[in-house]
Write a structure and sequence with these properties.
- The complex is a heterodimer of chains A (about 300) and B (about 800).
- Chain A has about 300 residues and is of the alpha/beta class.
- Chain A has two domains: about 5-40 and about 105-310, Aldolase class I (TIM Barrel, Alpha-Beta Barrel), CATH 3.20.20.70; about 45-100, Alpha-Beta Plaits (2-Layer Sandwich).
- Helices cover about 30% and strands about 20% of the residues of chain A.
- In chain A, the strands form three sheets. Chain A has a nine-stranded mixed beta sheet with strand order 7-1-2-8-9-10-11-12-13.
- Chain B has a domain at about 175-190 and about 475-725.
- Chain B is built from 32 helices and 18 strands.
- In chain B, helix 16 links the parallel strand 5 (about 370-375) and strand 6.
- The longest helix of chain B is centred in the first third of the chain and has 35 residues, at about 225-255.
- Classes of the chains: A alpha/beta (about 300), B alpha/beta (about 800).
- Chains A and B meet through strand 1 and helix 4 of A and helix 26, helix 29 and helix 30 of B.
Chain lengths: ~300, ~800
């Protein structure tokens, strides 16, 4: 099935080497509490509503074939039962207060868009990054895209949470130059609590992938009160140090050692949750301090692993 | 403005808060930061308020009163220059190594009443306005009113020009369709090549005398005129020598009373240097700096040419002196850096001369636009980067002062190491250096007819204008308000703001059947306006050639001596007039709205749109939002919008490029607005692209503010579609928040983005690296941000020195957030 794309970012400089274009696919098996892209979780089209942009034009109400919309003091409210996500309201909205997240693109459409970035990609040894959501949820389309990029000589990165069947991962790995692999925590109970899934598959996949010789950049979302305790950090550092890397993860890393990135959590996504009328439960999570990051990096250092702060 | 911006209350840390925040690509070579002398000089320069000096005006008025009619114009100008050099107050400050001021002391600016005479009101405005204030004591205003103003009444260049312009020109000028540079200052934008490091004024004088001896009074009907011009040049050489010698005398005198033995040594050395240059060619780095500085001061004292004066490829000029002395062991890298820092402070001591009349209120900057070219190509086409280039980057980074402007020149031959070092300085967010592409501008120069050698020695001065250094008069004549031309077209020749006629009647747009009819009308209007502009520009050129020659400047620009002709009269090897076109983004986006919504999709009628525009979109927010959110705009790599931009650009070219000027050269176009897009916005009603009346138009070739929503790579692709080789310079502003440039690899990527734009044929790119919170904090709490420099157009300015409009504009420019 062809996935929906919810964003295409140019001058993407935090998702792999060089200047990149990043394609975001909709749909994810995880439900991380801290998720920055809540619109990425469901594979189907979703409606986003930004109340601050709404000027009360009511064109959306007029155009809706299902009479699903109403203007209230809180802005436009959608009767989700009646709404069939046809998107006419979004097209009618003069301010784009209503937007539909998720659009179908064919491989050729995407390649045309990617091709426009070639000059920047070539000058920076950049490439294309597939992100999400979880791109491994759409292995058929993903592999097709990866092959198409390969034909055009473009460097390919896949940003994954690792929660997919091992076969799928290994098939994708055949066509991937670099994995940006998320590692969240070692404690399976905690992992389930925060992300909705068990982490055993993720850890196993990472082990197997490392042994295939794939290039892997391990990325750890660094969220205070979630995975920044000394025990948790030590556990991850130890796990990473025991991976049998066949390949240098990036040119700058020592042979056999991966580069690990900490991605410090920022409480910036709450606006997005509002747009989706989703609840954002950020009470327990906190932004890490420089000191937290330093301490954790030192722990990784003890296991001989370099850590970079940021993407 | 988004909610996250307004909510920010935390005042962020600024980079480079501490003085002397040091960056060195080769740390082992240098000590960190400015040394004590440079620190003190910088502090003095930065903290001294700008003031006006009437000394030059008094000398000039007295001289003209006594000598009017006695000499030919060139000789009169030269003798006046000599008189100033003989009489003006000489200043040598504590700690200074490089000496000489145009005024009686640092930051003190003379006036030029022979060109434009300030009124008493002007002085009061300048003395009291909030930004860019020039102080002047009441006593001096009284003297000016008594001794200067009455003499020049009716005699200034400005009055003579304005009394002779056609009514159509005046109507367009008053409507704000274009500006005219030469109503305020003399033609300038001059840049030197390397000749003053090989020849002294006595050598030039000898050449002049040789040419006088060879004049053929029997067969050359212009021989007498040439004689007068050459005599004037010779007098001017004497004038700067006298000026230098008076510095030598003062240095000697100060040495006699100085108690600090180290300073006594320095003063004696200054005296020696000033006896040597500019009379003779310099022998070492100190003399080379001082040589240029005296020539610089000479040209900006003789007249007040636009954009002061430029040393051109200064790193290349200084390199042989530096390398020789380093090899001989007579100079250390630190000594060299100190001298160059002293030179930098000297340039900063020289704010632009203030304007007169309405523009006295409008003026946006103290910057006088000296632009030092660093890196780039050598005359033989090879890489021009040397140790001095890196040293200059360090000086820029450490001093972070307003002037001189500076730019790095990145050709395919330029090493990545240098680009990376420059990107590190860009990251600091002082707004410089700007980045130029010699591979393209050499082609621009070749296309304009320069020889290969002269093209390779060319570069950019002022903001972004390209010229053959040391061999060309490239005169900027004024800005063209392209969106205003569309506004007048949409009102059938009338300026809707005043109801007065400002152009030609091209038909009621409500009758146009399709986009082509509309575009034709716009095109006709455009050609009419450009013709008006060129017609008067040629007239002004003749006026300057006849009544305000610049004999000293002519000495240092190639071929003036050989031809016996003045810089303003076709003396230089090349003679170019530029018209600077502004608002490409605004006009493209407006045309795109008309094309898509009125003519193609017929979402609303011409009448509806024009009505909404006339009401400044009052009660039409829905329409305005639809326009903003559903139109293809320039700067997003969108074929529909970019095709319109290319068409407008090509039609501007066709209207301007190659039209003959009075000096054997021709007109060319560049795409530059400096701060004029703010003024042009003020005299422009609402535009079809949803822009409200009075708001600035887009600057240079940049997209309309906030309309480039797809990131910098798409902006660059859009800009790459313009055939920039046919221009004399384009300007692209990109604003980056520091978050995009945190890590070493981010800086590398910035360099790669630059290379990628240049491979698409880009002429120039510059970056404002600041975050919105910093800017808002600076607006709220100005005294804490006195050193906050931002890049405006082709130059940097202190954020606090800008008026609120300019400040808001900087804040509104699209932020390229990190993803």
């Amino acid at each position: 099935m062809t996935p929906l794309i919810f964003d295409i970012r140019r001058y993407s400089i935090n998702d792999g080497p060089g200047i990149r274009i990043t394609i975001f696919m909709k749909g994810c098996p995880l439900r991380c509490t801290w998720c920055h892209n809540p619109e990425s979780q469901l594979p189907e089209v979703q409606k986003l509503y930004t109340a601050s942009k709404c000027i009360g034009a009511q064109d959306c109400i007029e155009v809706c074939p299902e009479n699903a919309l109403a203007l209230t003091p809180k802005g436009i409210v959608t009767d989700t039962e009646a709404c069939n996500l046809c998107g006419k309201c979004a097209g009618a909205c003069p301010t784009k207060a209503i937007e539909m997240s998720g659009k179908l693109y064919g491989v050729e459409d995407l390649m045309r868009i990617i091709e426009r970035e070639r000059v920047h990609i070539e000058h920076s040894n950049g490439g294309v990054t597939f992100s999400g959501g979880e791109p491994l949820m759409h292995p058929g389309f993903l592999v097709e895209m990866l092959k198409a990029c390969s034909e055009k000589g473009l460097h390919r990165a896949v940003d994954t949470c690792g929660y997919a069947s091992t076969e799928t991962l290994l098939e994708v790995a055949k066509h991937t130059d670099l994995f940006l692999y998320d590692l969240k925590m070692m404690n399976p109970v905690q992992h389930k609590k925060w992300t909705g899934v068990d982490n055993r598959l993720i850890l196993k996949n990472l082990k197997v992938l490392a042994e295939t010789g794939a290039k892997i950049n391990i990325r750890i979302p660094f969220i205070k009160n979630v995975n920044t305790g000394i025990e948790e950090i030590t556990g991850m550092a130890e796990f990473v140090s025991k991976l049998k890397f066949k390949c240098r993860s990036l040119e700058t890393a020592a042979p056999g050692k991966p580069i690990v990135n900490f991605l410090p959590y920022h409480n910036i996504a709450s606006g997005k949750y509002k747009k989706l009328e989703m609840l954002y439960n950020s009470d327990e999570m906190d932004e890490p301090t420089a000191e937290d990051l330093k301490t954790a990096a030192e722990i990784f250092g003890k296991f001989g692993i370099e850590v970079e702060i940021g993407g | 403005m988004t909610a996250t911006i307004t909510k920010t209350t935390k005042i962020p840390e600024r980079p480079a808060r501490a003085e002397g925040n040091f960056y060195s690509p080769e740390k082992k070579n240098a000590l960190p930061g400015m040394n004590d002398r440079v620190r003190r000089l910088r502090k003095h320069s930065v903290e001294t308020p700008e003031s006006l000096s009437i000394e030059r005006a008094l000398i000039t008025t007295r001289f003209y009163r006594e000598n009017l009619g006695k000499y030919s114009e060139p000789v009169m100008r030269a003798l006046n220059f000599l008189e100033i050099c003989k009489q003006k107050t000489i200043y040598i400050g504590d700690d200074e190594l490089i000496v000489g001021e145009r005024g009686p002391r640092p930051k003190s600016v003379p006036t030029f009443p022979e060109l434009t005479c300030h009124s008493v009101d002007d002085f009061h405005v300048l003395n009291s306005r909030d930004q860019q204030r020039y102080t002047i004591p009441q006593e001096d205003i009284d003297t000016y009113e008594r001794d200067v103003i009455p003499f020049w009444k009716g005699r200034t260049m400005r009055e003579r020009i304005f009394s002779h312009v056609p009514t159509e020109w005046k109507a367009a000028y008053e409507a704000g369709v274009f500006t005219e540079f030469m109503e305020q200052r003399a033609p300038g934008h001059t840049t030197l090549d390397g000749k003053i490091y090989r020849k002294g004024m006595l050598d030039f004088k000898k050449e002049i005398e040789d040419h006088i001896a060879r004049l053929d009074f029997l067969n050359d009907p212009e021989a007498t005129e040439k004689l007068e011009e050459l005599k004037a040049m010779a007098i001017s050489c004497d004038a700067v020598i006298v000026f230098a010698e008076r510095h030598a005398d003062l240095a000697e005198k100060l040495a006699n009373t100085e108690t600090n033995q180290q300073r006594v040594k320095e003063l004696k050395h200054i005296a020696e240097v000033c006896c040597r240059v500019p009379a003779h060619a310099p022998q070492n780095l100190w003399e080379a700096n001082q040589m240029y500085w005296f020539v610089h001061l000479g040209t900006i004292t003789e007249l007040n040419g636009w954009d002061a004066m430029n040393p051109g490829h200064f790193d290349q000029h200084l390199q042989p002196f530096y390398e020789k002395e380093i090899a001989e062991g007579t100079l250390t890298r630190e000594d060299a850096k100190e001298l160059i820092s002293c030179f930098w402070v000297k340039v900063n001591n020289h704010p632009a001369p203030p304007k007169v009349g309405i523009t006295a209120r409008e003026s946006g900057t103290f910057n006088d636009f000296t632009n030092i070219n660093i890196g780039g190509l050598r005359p033989d086409g090879t890489d021009g980067v040397s140790e001095i280039s890196y040293l200059m980057l360090e000086v820029i980074e450490e001093l972070h002062i307003l002037q001189p402007g500076n730019s790095v020149h990145i050709s395919k031959n330029t090493p990545d190491k240098f680009l990376n070092a420059a990107c590190h300085v860009i990251r600091q967010g002082h707004g410089y250096p700007s980045v130029f592409n010699p591979d393209i501008y050499v082609q621009e120069l070749l296309r304009q007819g320069k020889s290969q050698l002269d093209a390779y020695e060319g570069g950019c001065s002022g903001c972004i204008e390209v010229g053959a250094f040391g061999k060309e008069a490239y005169v900027l004549t004024g800005y063209l308000n392209v969106p205003k031309i569309l506004e007048i077209t949409l009102n059938n020749g009338t300026d809707p703001l005043t109801g007065k006629k400002a152009g030609i009647e091209t038909g009621d747009p409500r009758d146009f059947q399709n986009f082509e009819e509309l575009y034709d009308a716009f095109h006709k209007q455009l050609n009419f306006v450009v013709d008006q502009k060129i017609r008067v520009s040629n007239y002004i050129d003749k006026m300057f050639a006849r009544y305000a020659p610049a004999p000293f400047l002519s000495v240092v620009i190639e071929d003036c001596i050989q031809k016996g002709k003045d810089y303003y009269n076709g003396g230089p090897r090349y003679n170019t007039n530029y018209i600077q076109c502004t608002g490409l983004g605004t006009v493209t986006d407006s045309l795109s709205v008309l094309k898509k919504h009125v003519f193609e999709d017929k979402i609303f009628s011409m009448d509806t749109l024009l009505g909404a525009v006339a009401r400044n979109f009052a009660g039409e927010e829905k329409l305005r939002q639809r326009i903003i959110n559903y139109t293809p705009f320039f700067g997003n790599d969108d074929e529909i919008a970019d095709t319109i931009a290319v068409r407008v650009y090509n039609d501007l070219l066709a209207a301007i490029d190659g039209k003959p000027n009075t000096k054997g050269g021709s007109f060319h176009l560049n795409m530059l607005s400096t701060t004029c897009h703010v003024y042009f916005g003020k005299v422009l009603g609402a535009t079809p692209n949803g822009r409200f009346a009075g708001k600035s138009i887009s600057d240079g070739t940049s997209p309309s503010h906030g309309y480039d929503t797809h990131g910098p790579t798409n902006v660059i692709r859009s800009l790459g579609k313009l055939d920039q080789v046919k221009s004399g310079g384009t300007l692209l502003n990109l604003r980056f928040v520091p978050g995009l440039l945190k890590r070493e690899k981010d800086i590398e990527k910035l360099g790669q983005l630059i290379r990628s734009y240049f491979s698409l044929g880009g002429h120039h790119i510059q970056f404002n690296v600041v975050d919105t919170a910093t800017l808002l904090a600076a607006q709220a709490c100005p005294e804490d941000y006195r050193d906050l420099l931002v890049r405006m157009a082709g130059y940097s300015d202190y954020f606090n020195d800008m008026n609120a409009d300019l400040q808001n504009e900087v804040i509104e420019r699209t932020e390229n957030e990190a993803f």
